[in-house]
Write a structure and sequence with these properties.
Length: 196
């Protein structure tokens, strides 16, 4: 058996190890530079955001103080007075826009021959709708029902109810009708055809 070294010079793989260590050192250096740049960037961003947050908190506190001052300066009696004036103005506007001519034109085209209107009383409900109370006299219940149907067909009268119906001493039939009147939703009074 042979016991000698046949190689004239032993082969060591030192160059590959050096190249691997150099690549690892470059990667570590690059990661370190990247991490340092991120830390600096986020540190600056954090400082800027903290400054902005403190500025915003100071502004919010100032606005809260101003709101408290304004609330303290408001006189509730004066607000109630102004609200009352606004309600009155709205009622005057609503009364001005209510057209008696248009209403009576609608009645004329829907009123059966055997029915007479004794009185009409408009008022506004809490939702600012026009409510009409109509007192009618007729020969019988059927005539009042025909009048109610004619009014409903116009589209300007909603939730039409007969509140009180009874015969009179003169042999007529008396009824108290109540309805919500919305003239803008109905067929124009001038374009309606006369109904029985």
């Amino acid at each position: 058996m042979l016991r000698g070294n046949l190689a004239t010079k032993p082969f060591y793989n030192e160059r590959a190890v050096h190249m691997w260590l150099l690549a690892a050192a470059i990667a570590i250096a690059a990661a370190t530079v990247f991490n340092v740049s991120r830390v600096l960037k986020y540190s600056r961003s954090d400082t800027r955001l903290a400054t902005q947050a403190s500025t915003d908190e100071a502004r919010a506190a100032d606005l809260r103080r101003q709101a408290a001052r304004l609330r303290a300066a408001v006189d509730p009696k004066r607000i109630e007075f102004k609200a009352g004036e606004a309600r009155l103005a709205n009622e005057l506007i609503d009364r001005r826009t209510f057209s008696w001519t248009e209403l009576f034109n609608r009645f004329e085209t829907t009123l059966p021959d055997e029915v007479r209107i004794a009185s009409v009383r408009p008022h506004l409900d809490k939702d600012r709708n026009i409510i009409l109370q109509i007192h009618v006299l007729a020969r019988g219940v059927d005539d009042v029902n025909q009048f109610i149907e004619n009014l409903e067909q116009t589209g300007a009268f909603a939730r039409l109810l007969s509140r009180d119906e009874h015969p009179t001493e003169k042999g007529e039939f008396e009824a108290q009708l109540e309805t919500e009147y919305t003239p803008e939703h109905g067929v124009a009074a001038g374009s309606e055809k006369g109904q029985p």
